[in-house]
Structures are given as structure tokens and as C-alpha cells.
């Protein structure tokens, strides 16, 4: 940019304005102001040896130029200089032409801006009427000559404004910036532009030029010049859309997802709540109408005396228990599939009980064979392979980008923040801090890897050949502490921030302040000296994974990490805070294993073992028996069963992991930590159900062989276990459809573990249960079966306890069972209670639906890493202080850019470019950054390539010391006519991409586009290239998701308008691709899971109505869980999606046993139903009385215990996505299964079937007496 500044020296630059200041002229250096008279002319020398030439003071008459000078003027400034005198000489015009070259390369894409720019400079330098608008105010004498050092120039407001407006939107592609940032210091109006250009400074104007608005010299006035508009009617001056918003076509409005609202409420939420309220109103109206009709009918009957006796009370259903009437409505049909299942499980149970050693041996051998796969066990640690589906569009596009353009660079980033005093945070920069930080950067550059001994210079990105890319505020001071002055460092900083082009780092790219500073105290303030945070980025080349270069970079990054940990402490001593991330940091922190989580797993298993042992033992061990003879506890305890149950869970886990390790499916740390909880919660449930049913058979049929009792227990509970096992396994397996490997593999491992666990429970556990019962009946000690407890045997024999007991002498059911059958179930099934239950649960369902739009998407990196990770503050600072967004590349592939038709689909700066070309659309999207998330101009290689060929840019494309296209026919022009195609295009393009980017030719493509274009030399084609821009600052997961979605939309629009194959790429896209389809995928998978629940329920229960009720109940629970996610701040992502699928399976487990007990009611228990419980009500009561206690103690409580332990995890991802979701699961699944489902079944359930085990045998008849406690004596049987 030095040459641009030197325009002043040639007298050829329009310069500076100082606002509306009235200037008083002191000394008269330009005494005469009249037409045809000059004010300055020729060159008279410089202030110093290295200074630029200054013009001579000359108030003489303008002179006619010779032919040579006339030709120079017309070639440079246009045909209007074909006649008339001038106030310049050949030397000035030569200097003007040389210095205009740089400006021409920046703004030549916009003819109007270029014409205004050149017109200003040419008029300033050579106008014959100089004295009318120029007044010299200061001079100096040197070598007998008078040199001009300051002057005033008058420019009309109309021209100044028009000049600025024609140039303010011009883009300079190589730097992704506005031309105004380079030529005008980021000016916001024409006065700022002129002030920047005219200010006397090193590297700027060699003399001061002021532009007063008002002037006391009446003979002076601005020349009446008319500026060209960027949208000028003359096509020769009209600029392209990318540089002139006024002529751009309007893009269609973008309708955001979820934009349908009724006021502030999403349409779905409004519709859900409105529907519920309408239904509630209709139901209330129906109730009121029914009550009114009943009263009317009663009065009518009384008047007509047609009927006698009181009307039935609405509360008759809450009367007392009777034994017989309900049996009139008992099922009369059998269900063949249930009979088959019952028979199959009975035979399986009999085999396992008859041959326990064989069964246990086969189970152990099979588990050992499967577990041998653990020798092939591998854990995947690469975040990209863990969290990105290899078949996703983003992953495939990343692979294409890396293969064609090279892997995205490695970034090592630091934030230095002054917020250690929250009450008074201050500026991060100070004189001492700058010097200290420069020392830190120097030490970083000297670091060497511990293994390969590579240093930063060996590894860094060098776009211009030798200088490394380091984005730091130190670059504003040339990385030199001697350039930092205690008194002037703030001035220097502000100057560089205002005009980064004047303070470029060694690698040549201007460093915008928003890339290195942030956290300004006031949103309206952008004073860099007041910024509370600064960020520094060291950029390294990236290479294919596993390559030697990649290992060397990782080795150096490890050394850098250790150095920055030390710098953190140094920053603390200075009252500052430093956070950082290296390229290897995220993977390392994600793969940290914490001993705390391992301890939690062990603790959960111990708690579950103790609960299972105590709870199972309480079935046969009463407090009275324990008080009478404590020795009975040694026999009746169930610690062996508890150990066996836990051991089976562990066997299923190792078998599943081993099985899938055999086939090469890699595990993840989530699998290691989470699957034990899932299998434990699911596995222990079935153990409780089997043991509870077995103990009932011990009561009802103690004289039968143990094998028969075990067979019968499994026959009754097997179909329920099959029901829940199929739905759970299938639900978990549906998670395999999620493309994210970490989640997919987790789902597969979990499905395998649950399935294997179910098999072991109906085989191996039955064998263990049989052996345990044989031990107990022989009065042998639990855990020590070789020891016989004689005292307990005497007590058991004398008191007729379980071993050898008679039915009428057995102990009553437990407190929980009696509470459910005598209190809870009768009240729940009352008419008024049913109405309340339906109202409440349907209301929860409506609220859950209303909350669906409030569930956010995303998986914050801070959740996936340990709470004490050094990356947590880094991500916080990234969201808080980063003022620049990540780069985004729009890649065009599968085209031949050497063809004119394809070029016109990509370019933007030429008249024949398509109006909605790739670059034009990107520019239009940039103007609505709030929707597009695109904030910077597009770096278009093809536009800059054609500009590089422009012969006016004499220092760019040169052949034999002449511009390449100097004598081309047709000449270079903005219509693209005569531009190269085919092999010629490829030849020039190669030269362009190798041309250095320097002050002589900033359009050179080496630094800006060296890796942006793929050339197929054999076929002379350009099959792929990318166009670079940037997102706006992204400060949340929602921003990242929307930015990715927007980039996808833009690429689709480009493809639709141009026919090109275009996709967007940014480094973070692969991690956010899942959110493009996560909502649809969630709907499809949950819908598939519910459809599967319906099918399995229909087949195994034999009733479409009951299957519908069960499926709807599960759906309600899932919707409520999703609503709870919105309230608890759990976002939707692949992890929570699999959790929701798991929730379907576990919710079915809550419901399956009650639904089957409803369809196949126990005859014995059904006879105890209340006298007015008929039909479905009686069967609903029977289901609760039969399995309600088991569902609560064996399913609900076990899951509560397992989930509660997770509350103490230190892993945030477990706490949010597992603990919170599973708490909601237990709450909603349990309440829906134990409260809503019985009510719904009593209202809408299907016809039941005969229980195959209820055969009116002597044992069943005698078992009636076992349940006499349900009715509590004769008094309770009567009204």
C-alpha cells in the first residue's frame, strides 16, 4: 500500500477532509485564484533522503502539453484530456501512473469507483484551474526550491459523497475484505476517507492536505464535477452486483424452521393446549349434562312412580369386596400364542431346573466363548470417528475437501482476559502486558517437540513462502518490543486497528482487530485499547492422519500445551486469566477416564446387590419369624440369588462386548460407563418378577417338586419377559440406525447385552433359583450350602413355614401387596378417580406436546469433557469474546471452469456473469447476515484471476516486460470477451496461482488462492475449486447449527440457480451435520419403536385394543420425557435420541407385565375383586393385585436406585443426558404404568383370555385361602 500513499507525492491523490472547519489563511502562497492558473507543478525534492517527492509551489499559468505528455494523460486519465492546457509535467504523470497501479488493482472491478478515483487524482494533478480549488498554506525551502508541505483543497459535498458511495461496497477478493479498508482505512463516510488519505504520516501522504467545507477565499470553489454512480446508466461505468448493492436482484425471503407462531407461542404448542382445553370443556359439559339428565330422569320417575327404590350412587364402585360376581365376566377363551409361549417357557424352565449343572455349564461356556472377543477389544478415541457418521454428507464432503485442497490447518489458540475481578474488569492490554506477551510469543517460537525436535518454523503455515502465520496484537508492533512505547502504544494500536493494511504482519495479510481483540466494555465502543480480551492463534500446516508430519505437529503441540500451562500461572500473577486449546487438546480431554465414574459403577452394583438380596429375602422372611428364631435368616436370605443376578448382568455385558469385538466393532468410553447401568436396571427387574412368582407358587403348591414350581413360574412370567425383552432389544437396536459411530456402537452393544441377559435369566437364573430353593428346603445356610442350620430347620418344621407348609398356614402377602389390592387399586378404579387420572395425564400429554418446540438442539463440547478440564474456560471465552466467525468454503466440483459458460456461473465482476451466479448469491447472502450467518465478502479466484490479466495492472501478468494482454484482440474488457479458455486458461491460471502476492501486485494468487483451485493438467480442466468467506461470530450451539443449516440452504440455492454442484465446508460442519436431520430422524425412530411396540403387543397379548392402549401409554410417557428435557435443559442430539429410544424399551417393561396380567387375569386373584368390579374393571384390579407390587419393587425401585447413583458422577454428559433423562423416565414410566395404564385398560382394554395355569385344580382351589387377607374377613365382604 506504500505506492497508494505515494500518490500524494506525485500530486495525484485526492486526500483528506477535516470536517466543517473554517480555515483562515495566514501566509499567501497562492495569491491568484483564477481559471487557467496553477497552484503546484512538477517535483522539487523531498524532506529527507528517504522521503517522497514533494510538488513545487507554482501559481503560474497552465501550459499546453507536448504530444508525449498529451498521450500520457489521455492514456491514463481518459479522452477528456485530449485538449487544453495542463498544470503538470511528464515526470508527474509518470509518477501518478505508477502509483495508481496499486489502487487500480483494488478497485478496477468497479468502473464507476475507478473513474471517480482516477478523475480526482488526474484533476488534482493536472487541472488547468488548480488555483480555483487548491490553496497552498505551508512550504519549505530546500536547495533554492520552494517545496509544498501543506495545502487546502476544495471538493464539493456532492462529488465527495458520490465518490465514497461508488467505492464503499467494492470488494477486494484476495483478502476477503472491502476495498475501503485498504484504501480508506475503513472509512464510514467520504470525509473520513479523505482524511485518512490526506493525513501526513510515515507510509502515508508526504505532506498534509486538508479539505475544508467552508473557505474564506471567495475566488475559490470546488470544480463542478459529477461523480459516476456504481449503478450508472452507462454500462461502461456500471459496477457488478458484488460491488454495487443497488443493482443486485432481491433474493427470496428465507422462512426459518419453527417460524409458525400464534403471537409468541409456537403453532404446535398453541394447537396442543387449545385441543386439550376444548376436549376438557366438552368433557365437563358432558358430565354436567349427564348429571342434569339424571336429576331430570329421577324427578320424572318419582312423578310417574314407575320405579321404586333409590338410584344407584355414583360412588357404588367404591364399596366393599365380594368374591363371586366378577367371575361371571371372567374370560372364557384361550389365546393360542400365549399357550404356545407358556408351554415353551414351561419346558425351558423345567429343563433348566431339572438339569441345573448342564444349564449353568453351557451358559458359562457360551459366555466365555463370546467374552474371548475381548482380546480384540478396541476403544475409539478420535472425536471425528466417534461423533461423525462416515456416510454423512458432511463427512464425505470433508474427505473430498481434504483430498483436493489439503487438510484444514491446525490452530493453536489462546485467550488472555482481564476478568479476574468481576466487579471491575478492565482492559487486557497495557504497556507491561504487551512486553510480557511478546516474550511469551518469542518463547513459543523457540519451542521444540520432545520427540521429533521440530520447532514452530518447521511446522507453521507459510502462505507467502517464509513468514509464519501468527495472528496476534503483537503483529501491530512488528513483534518487536522496541516498537512499543510507554507513551504512544495506545495511539499505535488504535491506528493499526483503524487501518490494518498499514500494520500488516510478516506474512502480508492485514489483521483485522476483530480477529485478535474482543470483549469491549460498551457495545457501541470499539476502542482496541479498552478491549477486555485478546486472542492469539498460531497456525500450523495439517497433514493426513498417521503421517510423519502429523506426528511431528502433535509432538510440538504437546510441548506447547505444557508451556501454556506455565503461562497460565504467569498470567494469574499479573491479574489476568489465560485459556487455551491446541489441536490435540479436545481429543485428549474427551478420552480422559475418571476414577470417579468407575467408583460410581461399583457402588451402583453393590447397592443393587444389597437391595435385591434384602428385598427378595423379605418375600419369605417375616419380622415375626426373625424375632422368634434369628437363625432362620441364615436360610431364608437371598444373598446367593442377589449375587447370581448381578453376576448374570456382568456376564451379559462381557459377552456382548466380546461378541461385537469379534466382528471388529470398536467400543467407546460411553459404552464402558453407561451399559453397566442399563443392563443392571433392566436385568434385575426380571429377577424380581421371576422370584416373586416362584414364591407365590411355593405358597400355593409347596408339595410339588421344585422343578415343577420353577417350570410353572417361568411359564407364567416368560411371556412377559419375552414381551419386554423383544421391545427393549429392538428399541436399543433401532439406535444402530443413528449414523454417529459412538451412539450407533453403544446401541448395538446395549441391545446385545440386554438380549443375552434375558436369555441367561430364563435359563441360568432358573437353575440357580432351583438350587437355592432346594438348599432352603433342606435348611442349609445361604452362601454356605454345605452348612445345615438345625435350629432353623426345627423352627421351620414347628412353625409350618415355607418348606413343607400347608396353604392355609402360610404367611400373608407383604404390606405392599396388601396396600395395592385393598387400598390403592380400589380407589384408583373408582369412577371419579378415573376421571381425575385421565384429566391429569392427558393434560401432561398436552403440555409435553406444547414443550416439543422448546427442546433445543446441540451437544456442547463443554458437556462432553471433564468438569475440571482446562478447555472449559477456553470454550467459555470462545463464545464470549471471539469477534470473528470461522471460515466457510463453498466448493464447486464436477465442472470444467475453462469453459466460458461455466465461468459465467461462478464470476461476479463482469457484465456477462450470471445475475445469480455463485459469487453474486454469496454476496447477496452476506448482506443479510442475521439469516445467512455469512459476514465477509467472498474471495473469488476467478474474478481476481481475470483482474490479474488486466493489462492496466502492469506489474501482474507480464510477458517480456509487457502486460500479457497488452495487444490482445479483442482487448481485455469487462464483458469477458477474449478471456482465455481451454488450455490457454489453464496455462495462465497456473501462472496466476504461482504469482506472489506483494505490493506491486496484490492480486497475485499464491497467498490467497494457491490451494483454492484444483487443476487437471492432463485434461486441461479445473474440476474443483472453492470460494472462501466467513461466518459471523458464533456464540452458541444454536448459532453453529443455524450457520450450518444456512450454508446448506445457500449451497442448494446456488446449485438450483447455476446448475453447478456446490457444497459448503467448514471445519465444524462434520460435527453438526446430524442436526440437519435429527428432528426427522427422532420422529422416524420413535415412531418405528412405537410401531414395533404395537405389533409385538398385538401378537403377544392377542388384542388390538389393549395393544393400542399400551402403545399410547408408552407414547405419552415418551412425550412427557421430551417435554421434561425442555424444562431440564437437555438438548436433542444423537446421545439423547438413543436415550429416548431406550426409554421406549424400558417404558414398555413397566407396562408389559400389567398389560399381560390384564389380558390373562389370575382366576384366584380375580375372585377377590370387589362386587361391583365387573369386566375390565375386575381385570384391571386383578392385574394390579397380581403384579403391581412386583412392578413397583422390582422395576421402579431398582431403577430409582440405579439412577440416583448417577447423580454423583463428575461427568457432565452423564449428569445431563443420562441422569436427568432417566429420572424423567422413571417418574413418567412408573406413573403411567401404575396409574394411567390400569385406568385406560379398564376403559378401553380388549377382551381377556383364560390363564393356562388357572385350571380349577385342587391347588388353585386351596390357594384361594392364601388370599383371605385380601378381604380381611367376613365383615368386609358384606355391604
TrEMBL record:
Endpoints of the signal sequence: 1-19
Keyword Lipid metabolism attributed: yes
Database matches in PROSITE patterns: SSD
Membrane topology: Multi-pass membrane protein
GO cellular component: endomembrane system; membrane
Location in the cell: Endomembrane system
Keyword Glycoprotein appears in the UniProt entry: yes
Residue span(s) of domain SSD: 597-771
One GO-annotated biological process of the protein: cholesterol metabolic process
Top-level taxon: Eukaryota
Protein name: Patched family-domain-containing protein
Organism of origin: Podospora australis
Amino acid at each position: 500500500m506504500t505506492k497508494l500513499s505515494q500518490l500524494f507525492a506525485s500530486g495525484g491523490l485526492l486526500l483528506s477532509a477535516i470536517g466543517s472547519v473554517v480555515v483562515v489563511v495566514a501566509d499567501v502562497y497562492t495569491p491568484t485564484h483564477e481559471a487557467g492558473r496553477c497552484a503546484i507543478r512538477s517535483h522539487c525534492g523531498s524532506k529527507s533522503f528517504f522521503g517522497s517527492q514533494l510538488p513545487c509551489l507554482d501559481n503560474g499559468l497552465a501550459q499546453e502539453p507536448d504530444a508525449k505528455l498529451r498521450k500520457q494523460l489521455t492514456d491514463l486519465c481518459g479522452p477528456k484530456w485530449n485538449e487544453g492546457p495542463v498544470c503538470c509535467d511528464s515526470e508527474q504523470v509518470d509518477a501518478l501512473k505508477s502509483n495508481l497501479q496499486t489502487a487500480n488493482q483494488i478497485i478496477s472491478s468497479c468502473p464507476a469507483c475507478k473513474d471517480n478515483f482516477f478523475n480526482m487524482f488526474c484533476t488534482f494533478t493536472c487541472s488547468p484551474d488548480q488555483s480555483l480549488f487548491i490553496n497552498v498554506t505551508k512550504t519549505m525551502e530546500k536547495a533554492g526550491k520552494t517545496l509544498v508541505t501543506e495545502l487546502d483543497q476544495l471538493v464539493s459535498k456532492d462529488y465527495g459523497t458520490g465518490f465514497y458511495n461508488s467505492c464503499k461496497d467494492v470488494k477486494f477478493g484476495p483478502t476477503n475484505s472491502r476495498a475501503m479498508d485498504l484504501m480508506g482505512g475503513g472509512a464510514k463516510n467520504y470525509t473520513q476517507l479523505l482524511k485518512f488519505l490526506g493525513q501526513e504520516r510515515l507510509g502515508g501522504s508526504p505532506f498534509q492536505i486538508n479539505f475544508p467545507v467552508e473557505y474564506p477565499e471567495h475566488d475559490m470553489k470546488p470544480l463542478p464535477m459529477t461523480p459516476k454512480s456504481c449503478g450508472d446508466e452507462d454500462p461502461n461505468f456500471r459496477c457488478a452486483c458484488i460491488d454495487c448493492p443497488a443493482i443486485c436482484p432481491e433474493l427470496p425471503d428465507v422462512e426459518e424452521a419453527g417460524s409458525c407462531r400464534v403471537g409468541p407461542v409456537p403453532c404446535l404448542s398453541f394447537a396442543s393446549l387449545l385441543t386439550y382445553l376444548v376436549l376438557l370443556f366438552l368433557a365437563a359439559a358432558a358430565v354436567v349434562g349427564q348429571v342434569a339428565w339424571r336429576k331430570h330422569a329421577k324427578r320424572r320417575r318419582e312423578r310417574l312412580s314407575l320405579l321404586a327404590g333409590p338410584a344407584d350412587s355414583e360412588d357404588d364402585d367404591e364399596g366393599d369386596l365380594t368374591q363371586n360376581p366378577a367371575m361371571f365376566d371372567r374370560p372364557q377363551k384361550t389365546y393360542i400364542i400365549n399357550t404356545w409361549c407358556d408351554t415353551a417357557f414351561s419346558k425351558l424352565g423345567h429343563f433348566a431346573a431339572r438339569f441345573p449343572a448342564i444349564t449353568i455349564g453351557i451358559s458359562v461356556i457360551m459366555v466365555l466363548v463370546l467374552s474371548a472377543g475381548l482380546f480384540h477389544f478396541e476403544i475409539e478415541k478420535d472425536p471425528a470417528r466417534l461423533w461423525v457418521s462416515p456416510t454423512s454428507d458432511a463427512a464425505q464432503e470433508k474427505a473430498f475437501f481434504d483430498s483436493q485442497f489439503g487438510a484444514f490447518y491446525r490452530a493453536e489458540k489462546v485467550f488472555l482476559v482481564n476478568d479476574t475481578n468481576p466487579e471491575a474488569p478492565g482492559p487486557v492490554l497495557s504497556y507491561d502486558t504487551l512486553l510480557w506477551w511478546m516474550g511469551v510469543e518469542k518463547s513459543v517460537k523457540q519451542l521444540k517437540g520432545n520427540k521429533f525436535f521440530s520447532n514452530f518454523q518447521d511446522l507453521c503455515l507459510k502462505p507467502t513462502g517464509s513468514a509464519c502465520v501468527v495472528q496476534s496484537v503483537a503483529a501491530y508492533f512488528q513483534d518487536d518490543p522496541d516498537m512499543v512505547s510507554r507513551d504512544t502504544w495506545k495511539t499505535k494500536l488504535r491506528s493499526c486497528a483503524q487501518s490494518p493494511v498499514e500494520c500488516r504482519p510478516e506474512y502480508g495479510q492485514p489483521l483485522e482487530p476483530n480477529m485478535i481483540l474482543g470483549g469491549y466494555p460498551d457495545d457501541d465502543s470499539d476502542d482496541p485499547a479498552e478491549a477486555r480480551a485478546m486472542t492469539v492463534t498460531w497456525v500450523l500446516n495439517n497433514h493426513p492422519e498417521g503421517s510423519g508430519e502429523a506426528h511431528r505437529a502433535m509432538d510440538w503441540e504437546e510441548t506447547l500445551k505444557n508451556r501454556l500451562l506455565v503461562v497460565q500461572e504467569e498470567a494469574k500473577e499479573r491479574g489476568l486469566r489465560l485459556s487455551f486449546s491446541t489441536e490435540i487438546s479436545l481429543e485428549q480431554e474427551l478420552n480422559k477416564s475418571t476414577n470417579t465414574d468407575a467408583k460410581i459403577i461399583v457402588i451402583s452394583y453393590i447397592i443393587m446387590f444389597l437391595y435385591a438380596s434384602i428385598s427378595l429375602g423379605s418375600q419369605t422372611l417375616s419380622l415375626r419369624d426373625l424375632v422368634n428364631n434369628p437363625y432362620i435368616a441364615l436360610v431364608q436370605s437371598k444373598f446367593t440369588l442377589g449375587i447370581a443376578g448381578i453376576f448374570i448382568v456382568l456376564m451379559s455385558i462381557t459377552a456382548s462386548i466380546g461378541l461385537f469385538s469379534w466382528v471388529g466393532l470398536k467400543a467407546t468410553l460411553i459404552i464402558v460407563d453407561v451399559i453397566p447401568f442399563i443392563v443392571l436396571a433392566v436385568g434385575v427387574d426380571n429377577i424380581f418378577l421371576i422370584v416373586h412368582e416362584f414364591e407365590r407358587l411355593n405358597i400355593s403348591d409347596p408339595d410339588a417338586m421344585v422343578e415343577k414350581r420353577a417350570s410353572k413360574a417361568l411359564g407364567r412370567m416368560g411371556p412377559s419377559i419375552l414381551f419386554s425383552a423383544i421391545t427393549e432389544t429392538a428399541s436399543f437396536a433401532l439406535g444402530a440406525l443413528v449414523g454417529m459411530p459412538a451412539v450407533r456402537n453403544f446401541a448395538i452393544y446395549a441391545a446385545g447385552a440386554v438380549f443375552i441377559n434375558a436369555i441367561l435369566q430364563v435359563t441360568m437364573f432358573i437353575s440357580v433359583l432351583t438350587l437355592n430353593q432346594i438348599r432352603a428346603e433342606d435348611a442349609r445356610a445361604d452362601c454356605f450350602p454345605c452348612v445345615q442350620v438345625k435350629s432353623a430347620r426345627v423352627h421351620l418344621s414347628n412353625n409350618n413355614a415355607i418348606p413343607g407348609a400347608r396353604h392355609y398356614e402360610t404367611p400373608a402377602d407383604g404390606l405392599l401387596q396388601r396396600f395395592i389390592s385393598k387400598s390403592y387399586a380400589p380407589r384408583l378404579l373408582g369412577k371419579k378417580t378415573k376421571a381425575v387420572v385421565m384429566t391429569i395425564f392427558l393434560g401432561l400429554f398436552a403440555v409435553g406436546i406444547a414443550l416439543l418446540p422448546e427442546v433445543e438442539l446441540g451437544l456442547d463440547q463443554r458437556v462432553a469433557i471433564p468438569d475440571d478440564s482446562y478447555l472449559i474456560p477456553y470454550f467459555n471465552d470462545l463464545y464470549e469474546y471471539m469477534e470473528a466467525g470461522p471460515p466457510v468454503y463453498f466448493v464447486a466440483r464436477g465442472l470444467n471452469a475453462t469453459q466460458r459458460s461455466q465461468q459465467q456461473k461462478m464470476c461476479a465482476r463482469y457484465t456477462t456473469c450470471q445475475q445469480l451466479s455463485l459469487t453474486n448469491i454469496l454476496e447477496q447472502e452476506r448482506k443479510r447476515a442475521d439469516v445467512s450467518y455469512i459476514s465477509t465478502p467472498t474471495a473469488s479466484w476467478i474474478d481476481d484471476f481475470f483482474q490479474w490479466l488486466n493489462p492496466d495492472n502492469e506489474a501482474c501478468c507480464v510477458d517480456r516486460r509487457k502486460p500479457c494482454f497488452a495487444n490482445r484482440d479483442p482487448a481485455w474488457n469487462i464483458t469477458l470477451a477474449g478471456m482465455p479458455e481451454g488450455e490457454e486458461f489453464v496455462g495462465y491460471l497456473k501462472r496466476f496461482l504461482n504469482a506472489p502476492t506483494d505490493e506491486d501486485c496484490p492480486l497475485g494468487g499464491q497467498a490467497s488462492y494457491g490451494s483454492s483451485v484444483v487443476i487437471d493438467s492432463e485434461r486441461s480442466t479445473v474440476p474443483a475449486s472453492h470460494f472462501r468467506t466467513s461466518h459471523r461470530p458464533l456464540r452458541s450451539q444454536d448459532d453453529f447449527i443455524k450457520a450450518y443449516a444456512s450454508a446448506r440452504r445457500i449451497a442448494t440455492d446456488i446449485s438450483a440457480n447455476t446448475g453447478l454442484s456446490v457444497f459448503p465446508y467448514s471445519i465444524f460442519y462434520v460435527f453438526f451435520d446430524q442436526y440437519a436431520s435429527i428432528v426427522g430422524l427422532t420422529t422416524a425412530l420413535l415412531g418405528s419403536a412405537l410401531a414395533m411396540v404395537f405389533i409385538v403387543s398385538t401378537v403377544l397379548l392377542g388384542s388390538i385394543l389393549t395393544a393400542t392402549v399400551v402403545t399410547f401409554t408408552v407414547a405419552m410417557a415418551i412425550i412427557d420425557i421430551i417435554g421434561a428435557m425442555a424444562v431440564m435443559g437437555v438438548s436433542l442430539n444423537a446421545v439423547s435420541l438413543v436415550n429416548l429410544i431406550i426409554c421406549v424399551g424400558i417404558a414398555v417393561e413397566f407396562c408389559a407385565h400389567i398389560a399381560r396380567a390384564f389380558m390373562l387375569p389370575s382366576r384366584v386373584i380375580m375372585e377377590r375383586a370387589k362386587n361391583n368390579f365387573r369386566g375390565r374393571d375386575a381385570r384391571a384390579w386383578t392385574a394390579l393385585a397380581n403384579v403391581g407390587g412386583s412392578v413397583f419393587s422390582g422395576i421402579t425401585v431398582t431403577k430409582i436406585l440405579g439412577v440416583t447413583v448417577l447423580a454423583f458422577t463428575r461427568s457432565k454428559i452423564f449428569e445431563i443426558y443420562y441422569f436427568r433423562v432417566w429420572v424423567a423416565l422413571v417418574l413418567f414410566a412408573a406413573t403411567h404404568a401404575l396409574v394411567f395404564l390400569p385406568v385406560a385398560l379398564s376403559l378401553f382394554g380388549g377382551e381377556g383370555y383364560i390363564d393356562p395355569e388357572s385350571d380349577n385344580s385342587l391347588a388353585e382351589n386351596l390357594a384361594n385361602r392364601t388370599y383371605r387377607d385380601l378381604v380381611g374377613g367376613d365383615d368386609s365382604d358384606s355391604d
